[in-house]
Write a structure and sequence with these properties.
Immunoglobulin-like; Rossmann fold; periplasm; glycosidase; 8-stranded parallel β-barrel; beta-glucosidase activity; alpha/beta; binds 1-deoxynojirimycin
Length: about 775
């Protein structure tokens, strides 16, 4: 009896903090609801509609007009404006309005703000949630210190198609990994409470499936089965919701014929009802007006009606809500309730951001404004260098071409070697290229004797007039792709002459940052312009050849891979990219990055992804002439597989040990391997665990990532790694969209990449 009483007391005491927390959550939710309802009751229709507008200074809405609209309560938020003095003026205007409802300020802070970190696909290559947290925290602090409340980030669109220029922004091709990174980044940006300076509201995007446009062509439509959506594309958006993301931005594209902006199923059924998303839903830039181009609305009025009825809260940039909602309300085509619901979400976001308590929470007082917004003291270089080093992926290293000897005579060649702009990558917020470190700069800093450093440009990134016309906006300085006035032959000859004088050639090649960007899809995936010819000419000199790739998407560079002695993928590595790359080239940092996306052999293979289905006729090594699911002019399989990346040391993996051969529901299956550093120096690698459901009610992928561990081992050290699996890990969405594990045989695979794995089988009962 006494024991039971003690147990009850202990249980009560243990649960008391949880109960107290729940009560305080309920009290604050009630206070918030009360505040919002009270405000809503006082608002005129015009003021309500004003809250649904997120605008930027532009041709249609000049600064003076926006200031007037803010003062008249006809604006909910502003984006693309930055800097405390500027934003203060807008907030002052909003606080002159009748109800003094503050504005919120948003910006595209995607991979850093003043200090730029690697682009999304680079951050994803770290396989290090600590690095992602660091990048996110610093971005939030820098953005907040510039007066911003919301960032249009993280970008979580899965893609299996490197033709899509926005492959650069996301986390790659895997649903499980992308979901993990998404919740990490949301938590990093938002911190423990949104109502504090230093934390910003994340707006995950682009809901949903933006990374799967047909043909990899940006803005193109997507037609996808529900099981594939749920299994392979939706998990990161769902992870954002589960992590408490404050806002969600809708994609431009049409999903199975219905644009996201007017897609009731997507917004109301999936996001609101199934996932219970409580935050703000915003459109992409001009997307409400785009409903007319999509051909689902015949007039602007109809477009506004469809969007608000589908559940969109705030429209970005176009003026359709302002111009059309009053008439739609009068005619009864849109109900007061529909508008009020949207307004509640905007006010709710402002409440959560702490703006009703203090509209200047992030803007601060004028006396505290920084004298120089680009001051070095406002940068976080050390952290940027640390994260950038982790994002670099060593793809080839034969005959120990790397690391380089610091006393060698090095020829740095290539159109991207001296670029401080490209290394920042696209969406580099308000960073200045003058503060970035190019690859050439980084190598020069690292060398004992910089006089042994030689340089030649060798080629332009591209000379394709179609690309130049598109990317080089007239009058922009610098141009996206700089064109050297010398002839291609002359540049090539200079590079060859320089290479001949050197002990080793480092060729920095790839794409300009604008080539891997919104609207920049490519139909070919080779090195553009004369760069491939440059690599062949450098190879012909017989000097050791190191390729440093700078690009935002997987490239198909099989020939260049064969010619090079070493290949280092650097993506666009940010402000400190050049120093980080030099750290790896000279061995001051041992590379540990792994690819979060597959590199195809040729563009014709696309989409190429590791978690494909087996098909009726998988190719068989012992029957190469048999009919099979393959190309007759290209091998199956990637140039570099998902999860791949080398180190300057070597690792071996033992066979897998399982704690049981059969698993009952509710039980745990342990899988272990011994990882050994068999090389001469300390190094880190990522041990990856994949599962396969051998036979199920629908065909299941040949493998799917479920766990990983990033491990640092000293030379000669070994460690046993343990992974626990349960029924939850074996679940998938079946044809009825039930998330369930089916009894039968499974394979567990563990490897240092997705191709080369150890395997054991077990049964689920
Ligand atoms: C369009 C892009 O698709 C989106 O990612 C971005 O946040 C908005 N423009 C605002 O710049």
């Amino acid at each position: 009896m006494r024991t039971i009483a003690w147990l009850m007391l202990i249980t009560f005491l243990a649960s008391a903090p949880v109960v107290a927390q729940r009560l305080s959550d309920q009290t604050s939710a009630a206070a918030k609801a009360h505040f919002i309802e009270n405000l809503l009751r006082q608002m005129t229709t015009e003021e309500k509609i004003g809250q649904l507008r997120l605008n930027c200074i532009g041709v249609q809405s000049p600064r003076e007009q926006l200031l007037e609209e803010a003062a008249a309560s006809r604006l909910g938020g502003i984006f693309y404006a930055v800097g405390r003095a500027d934003l203060r003026e807008f907030q002052d205007a909003a606080l002159r309005s009748r109800l003094k409802i503050p504005l919120f300020f948003a910006y595209d802070v995607i991979h850093g703000h003043r200090t730029i970190f690697p682009i999304g696909i680079g951050l994803a290559s770290t396989w290090d949630t600590g690095a992602i947290t660091l990048a996110g925290r610093i971005a939030a602090q820098e953005a907040s210190a510039d007066g911003l409340d919301m960032v249009f980030s993280p970008m979580v669109d899965i893609t299996r198609d490197p033709r899509w220029g926005r492959a650069s922004e996301g986390w790659g091709e895997d649903a499980w990994l992308s979901a993990l990174y998404t919740s990490t980044m949301v938590q990093a940006l938002q911190g423990s409470t949104l109502g504090a300076a230093g934390n910003v509201m994340a707006s995950a995007k682009h809901f949903a499936l933006y990374g799967a446009p047909e043909g990899g062509r940006d803005y193109n439509s997507v037609d996808m089965s529900l099981p594939r959506m749920y299994q392979d594309y939706l998990p990161p958006y769902h992870a954002a919701v589960k992590a408490g993301v404050g806002a969600m931005m809708l994609t431009y594209i049409a999903i199975n014929g219905v644009p996201a902006t007017s897609n009731t199923w997507l917004i109301r059924d999936l996001l609101r009802k199934q996932w219970r998303f409580k935050g703000l839903i915003i459109s992409d830039f001009n997307a409400v007006a785009d409903l007319v181009s999509h051909g689902v609305a015949s007039t602007d009025r109809e477009a506004a009606m469809l969007a608000i009825r589908a559940g969109l809260n705030m429209s970005m940039s176009d003026t359709l809500f302002r111009d059309e909602l009053p008439g739609l309300l009068r005619s009864g085509a849109v109900s007061q309730e529909e508008v009020d619901d949207a307004v509640r979400e905007v006010l709710g976001a402002k409440y959560d951001l702490g703006l009703f308590a203090d509209p200047y929470l992030r803007i601060g007082a004028a006396k505290d404004d920084p004298a120089d917004i680009h001051a070095e003291t406002r940068m976080h270089r050390e952290q940027a260098r640390d994260v950038a080093r982790k994002s670099l992926v060593l793809l080839k290293n034969q005959r120990n071409a790397l690391p380089l000897d610091k006393s060698a005579r090095i020829a740095v060649v290539g159109p991207l070697a001296k670029s401080r702009l490209d290394i920042l990558g696209n969406w580099s917020s308000i960073a200045t290229s003058a503060q970035a470190v190019s690859v050439y700069d980084g190598i020069a800093h690292a060398l004992d004797a910089p006089d042994r450093l030689l340089y030649a440009r060798g080629a332009d990134v591209t000379d394709d007039p179609r690309i130049l016309d598109y990317l080089n906006v007239p009058g922009a300085n610098p141009a996206d792709v700089e064109v050297d006035p010398r002839s291609p032959t002359r540049m090539l000859q200079e590079a060859v002459d320089v290479a001949r004088q050197a002990d080793v050639v480092v060729a920095v090649v790839g794409e300009s940052r604008g080539m891997s960007y919104e609207g920049a899809s490519r139909a070919s995936l080779g090195l553009p312009g004369y760069q491939a010819r440059l690599i062949s000419a450098l190879k012909a000199t017989g000097k050791p050849l190191v390729l440093v790739l700078m690009n935002g998407r997987p490239l198909s560079i099989g020939k260049e891979h064969d010619m090079a002695d070493a290949v280092l993928e650097t993506w666009y590595s940010g402000t400190e990219g050049g120093n980080a790359i030099a750290d790896v080239l000279f061995g001051d940092y041992n590379p540990s990055g792994k690819l979060p996306i597959t590199f195809p052999r040729s563009v014709g293979q696309v989409p190429t992804y590791y978690n494909h289905l087996n098909t009726s006729k998988p190719p068989q090594a012992d029957a190469p002439r048999a009919v099979a699911s393959r190309y007759i002019d290209e091998q199956n399989g990637p140039l570099y597989p998902f999860g791949f990346g080398l180190s300057y040391t070597q690792f071996s993996l033992s066979d897998i040990t399982l704690t049981r051969q059969s698993l009952k529901r509710g039980e745990v299956l342990g899988a272990s391997v011994v990882l050994k550093n068999t090389g001469q120096r300390a190094g880190e690698t990522v041990v990856q665990l994949y599962l396969r459901d051998i036979s199920a009610s629908i065909s299941r992928p040949v493998k799917e990532l479920k766990r990983y561990q990033k491990i640092l081992l000293q030379a000669g050290e070994e460690r046993t790694l343990y992974f626990n699996l349960s029924e939850e890990d074996l679940k998938f969405y079946n044809a009825q969209l039930e998330h369930a594990a089916e009894a039968g045989a499974f394979s567990v695979m563990i490897g240092l990449d997705s191709r080369d794995v150890k395997e054991r089988r077990f049964e689920l009962f």
